[in-house]
Amino acid sequence: FGEGANLLITGSTHNEWGVRKAFDPDAQELLSSHLIKKIKNYEESIIRYEGYFLEDCDIILIAFGSVARSALKAIKMLREEGIKAGLFRPITIWPNGLKKIKDLIKEKKVIVCEMNQGQLIEEVKKYKEEVLGIFKTRGEAIYPEEIYLRIKNECKII
Questions:
Q1: Is the separation of the CB atoms in 77 and 85 below 8 Å?
Q2: Counting Cβ atoms within 10 Å, is residue 47 exposed (0-12), middle (13-18) or buried (19+)?
Q3: Could you state, in order of their start, the residue ranges of all structural domains in the chain?
């Protein structure tokens, strides 16, 4: 593709001329800085997320990936009981779009559901200190009933 000079396309660390520099710390730093700056410059066009029932919610669940499906089901179960819960589902994890709901989460009970050690909750805590985490690291799914029961117990909802 293109004409003239040869072009090296690689996922390895390289300098501005495309020459591999996988073991050059300076090249690593330059490339990392360049890529992060590029992402930040286009952050608004990169961020993707979905929101469900956020307009009237008192409790916001934040979940991504397959856990978001369980969270949405749990929200529907809670809503059937008159408990106003909503879901913020980041589709892109970084940048994550939490800035879009930072004002909303300040006023609400916030619960982050993750199938890991809680990486996303740390990002959420940049906008709100008091956040409940529901984590599972056993390689098993987090089921809607688990989320539903934790919310009922932790939020003292009878």
A1: no
A2: middle
A3: 1-41, 48-154
Q: What's the whole-model pTM score?
A: 0.82
The beta-strand segments (E) located in 30-83 are 49-52, 59-63
Residue that is written with structure tokens 């410059």 in the block: 41
Classify 156 as helix, strand or coil: coil
* Nearest CA-CA partner of 127 in 69, 92, 88: 88
Residue type, 138: R
Bridge partners (DSSP) of residue 14 are: 20
The closest alpha carbon to 143, from 53, 77, 50, belongs to 77
pLDDT tens by residue, 63-84: 999 999 999 999 999 999 999 9
Give the model confidence (pLDDT) of 105-148 as tens digits. 998 999 999 999 999 999 999 999 999 999 999 989 999 999 99
22 Cβ contact partners less than 8 Å away, ≥ 6 residues apart: 12, 13
Contact 70, 147 (CB under 8 A): yes
Domain 48-154 in this protein, CATH class: alpha beta
Q: By 3-state DSSP, what share of the chain in percent is helix, strand and coil, each rounded to 5?
A: 40, 15, 45
